[in-house]
Amino acid sequence: MTVTIVGSQLGDEGKGGVVDLYGDAADVVARYQGGDNAGHTVVHDGTKYKLSLVPSGAVRGKIGVLGNGCVVNPETLFDEIDTLRERGLEPDVRVAERAHVILPYHRALDGIEEAEKEDLAAGTTKRGIGPTYEDKAGRRGVRIGDLLDPDVLRERLEYVVPQKKALAEEVFEKETGEEFDIDHLYETYREYGERLADEEMTVDCGTFLQERVDIGESVMLEGAQGTSLDIDHGVYPYVTSSNPTAGGATVGTGLGPTVIGDGEVIGIVKAYLSRVGTGPLPTELGGVEDQTPDYHGDVDAAADEEELATYIRDEGGEYGTVTGRPRRVGWLDMPMLRHAARANGFTGLAVNHIDVLAGLETVEVGHSYEFDGEEIFTMPPTTEQWARCEATFESFDGWPEVDWAAVAAEGYEAIPENAQTYLEYIADELDTPVYAVGVGPGREETIVVENPYE
Ligand code: GDP
Ligand code: IMO
Ligand code: MG
């Protein structure tokens, strides 16, 4: 049985917390895409763990797998493993031999290109994600398996590094250092390969996971980023370079689509919207790039909106886990969620952060868009069209600030009535049941309505 956890919006929906909660029943937690651009927060025994690469389940003694669809920076990998060990944990992490390696020149080029792109820049995490996936598709990448074979590693580097160096120096006119030096890279990455081999960390991912499924173990597939950051289904080009959508779980692990489809696909929804990085955002509150339809028209309202944005940002701790950047915030965008529900085939939803909105008089939702004079209910395919969409809002009566830990202990019925109305609206519109409700960052602050493994 597999359970796939997918972000339904723009990342940071609280996937790590849900993986931690449901992952309790899992034997293996595997990531299928992305790399150390992710930032997942897991609160365990009062201690906060921030992981950007290692699967969240590793904190709780599960086998953590980085699937073939991931891009792996060995430096981050070993840093995170060493940090977890220093904190008394014994993470068991495996890495797919087919996964691609992020090399220092990828990171350098990520930064260089972001600066060059101006309006087209996605505001990347500068972790080298895009350039590594580019090389994967260009069939000039270095894979984890190559690190274990020094001759192959040398051959790959000798082909690719001069091209990268020329790109940096001649096209972008930048000075380069040891991140573009073949000998230095060869020595450093060969050593990483030795450590991977010594610690017996590499696997043939699909086979490894299928064997687990066959003996009746439970596998959790942990998505990073979110549907609107998907390179195919997101708001291109303000996206990441992989497929966070559920289809990515099959390609990025080597488990067949029927195996994934036999299980559950849970969409993680933040009760409002937040994003780091650039691009349009029809339901945005305030912000430098205010796309909100003139909100309710007047200057005072605009100032209020800015205040509201700051309030939600602070209440929700909306500052990037990896980069610390303040996130842009907005109201829930239902066309975005309808798009996500279809693209992923959600079987259940986890709606997080309803506590953050507590105390507001009204909570608004972008129910549909007005697009060229017509009402539409899902996202249009181009980002230029999306930028022309004006959200049509529906208002919900707010719910009070309550003792959320007590609510969590009591269960769904204890959730303030107006918040229940809000949750039911989301479930109805997406035709998908709510499996869990997040009312705070801690593991005990999640109300489980349905456990997919039971
Ligand atoms: P991920 O990238 O989707 O795993 O999410 P992040 O960990 O980057 O961001 C989610 C943040 O919200 C973390 O700081 C979580 O501890 C926190 N969080 C998760 N669920 C809830 C919730 O229901 N309420 C509140 N207040 N915080 C939450
Ligand atoms: P988690 O897993 C939020 C955003 C970046 C940028 C775009 C491309 O924590 O939800 P990249 O470095 O991937 O090339 O950046 O995607 N981004 C995220 N935003 N949460 C994430 O991960 C993100 N990973 C990437 O801000 O706009
Ligand atoms: Mg995050």
Automatic annotation (TrEMBL):
<keyword id="KW-0460">Magnesium</keyword>
<comment type="pathway">
    <text>Purine metabolism; AMP biosynthesis via de novo pathway; AMP from IMP: step 1/2.</text>
</comment>
<keyword id="KW-0658">Purine biosynthesis</keyword>
<dbReference type="InterPro" id="IPR042111">
    <property type="entry name" value="Adenylosuccinate_synth_dom3"/>
</dbReference>
<keyword id="KW-0479">Metal-binding</keyword>
<feature type="binding site">
    <location>
        <begin position="438"/>
        <end position="440"/>
    </location>
    <ligand>
        <name>GTP</name>
    </ligand>
</feature>
<keyword id="KW-0547">Nucleotide-binding</keyword>
<feature type="binding site">
    <location>
        <position position="139"/>
    </location>
    <ligand>
        <name>IMP</name>
    </ligand>
</feature>
<dbReference type="GO" id="GO:0004019">
    <property type="term" value="F:adenylosuccinate synthase activity"/>
</dbReference>
<dbReference type="GO" id="GO:0005525">
    <property type="term" value="F:GTP binding"/>
</dbReference>
<feature type="binding site" description="in other chain">
    <location>
        <position position="325"/>
    </location>
    <ligand>
        <name>IMP</name>
    </ligand>
</feature>
<dbReference type="InterPro" id="IPR042109">
    <property type="entry name" value="Adenylosuccinate_synth_dom1"/>
</dbReference>
<keyword id="KW-0342">GTP-binding</keyword>
<dbReference type="GO" id="GO:0005737">
    <property type="term" value="C:cytoplasm"/>
</dbReference>
<dbReference type="Pfam" id="PF00709">
    <property type="entry name" value="Adenylsucc_synt"/>
</dbReference>
<comment type="function">
    <text>Plays an important role in the de novo pathway of purine nucleotide biosynthesis. Catalyzes the first committed step in the biosynthesis of AMP from IMP.</text>
</comment>
<feature type="binding site">
    <location>
        <position position="327"/>
    </location>
    <ligand>
        <name>GTP</name>
    </ligand>
</feature>
<feature type="binding site" description="in other chain">
    <location>
        <position position="240"/>
    </location>
    <ligand>
        <name>IMP</name>
    </ligand>
</feature>
<feature type="binding site">
    <location>
        <position position="12"/>
    </location>
    <ligand>
        <name>Mg(2+)</name>
    </ligand>
</feature>
<protein>
    <recommendedName>
        <fullName>Adenylosuccinate synthetase</fullName>
        <ecNumber>6.3.4.4</ecNumber>
    </recommendedName>
</protein>
<dbReference type="InterPro" id="IPR033128">
    <property type="entry name" value="Adenylosuccin_syn_Lys_AS"/>
</dbReference>
<feature type="binding site">
    <location>
        <begin position="39"/>
        <end position="41"/>
    </location>
    <ligand>
        <name>GTP</name>
    </ligand>
</feature>
<keyword id="KW-0436">Ligase</keyword>
<dbReference type="InterPro" id="IPR042110">
    <property type="entry name" value="Adenylosuccinate_synth_dom2"/>
</dbReference>
<dbReference type="InterPro" id="IPR027417">
    <property type="entry name" value="P-loop_NTPase"/>
</dbReference>
<feature type="binding site" description="in other chain">
    <location>
        <position position="125"/>
    </location>
    <ligand>
        <name>IMP</name>
    </ligand>
</feature>
<dbReference type="GO" id="GO:0044208">
    <property type="term" value="P:'de novo' AMP biosynthetic process"/>
</dbReference>
<dbReference type="InterPro" id="IPR001114">
    <property type="entry name" value="Adenylosuccinate_synthetase"/>
</dbReference>
<feature type="active site" description="Proton acceptor">
    <location>
        <position position="12"/>
    </location>
</feature>
<keyword id="KW-0963">Cytoplasm</keyword>
<feature type="binding site">
    <location>
        <begin position="321"/>
        <end position="327"/>
    </location>
    <ligand>
        <name>substrate</name>
    </ligand>
</feature>
<feature type="binding site">
    <location>
        <position position="39"/>
    </location>
    <ligand>
        <name>Mg(2+)</name>
    </ligand>
</feature>
<comment type="subunit">
    <text>Homodimer.</text>
</comment>
<dbReference type="InterPro" id="IPR018220">
    <property type="entry name" value="Adenylosuccin_syn_GTP-bd"/>
</dbReference>
<feature type="binding site">
    <location>
        <begin position="353"/>
        <end position="355"/>
    </location>
    <ligand>
        <name>GTP</name>
    </ligand>
</feature>
<feature type="binding site" description="in other chain">
    <location>
        <begin position="12"/>
        <end position="15"/>
    </location>
    <ligand>
        <name>IMP</name>
    </ligand>
</feature>
<comment type="similarity">
    <text>Belongs to the adenylosuccinate synthetase family.</text>
</comment>
<feature type="binding site">
    <location>
        <begin position="11"/>
        <end position="17"/>
    </location>
    <ligand>
        <name>GTP</name>
    </ligand>
</feature>
<feature type="active site">
    <location>
        <position position="136"/>
    </location>
</feature>
<feature type="binding site" description="in other chain">
    <location>
        <position position="225"/>
    </location>
    <ligand>
        <name>IMP</name>
    </ligand>
</feature>
<dbReference type="GO" id="GO:0000287">
    <property type="term" value="F:magnesium ion binding"/>
</dbReference>
<feature type="binding site" description="in other chain">
    <location>
        <begin position="37"/>
        <end position="40"/>
    </location>
    <ligand>
        <name>IMP</name>
    </ligand>
</feature>
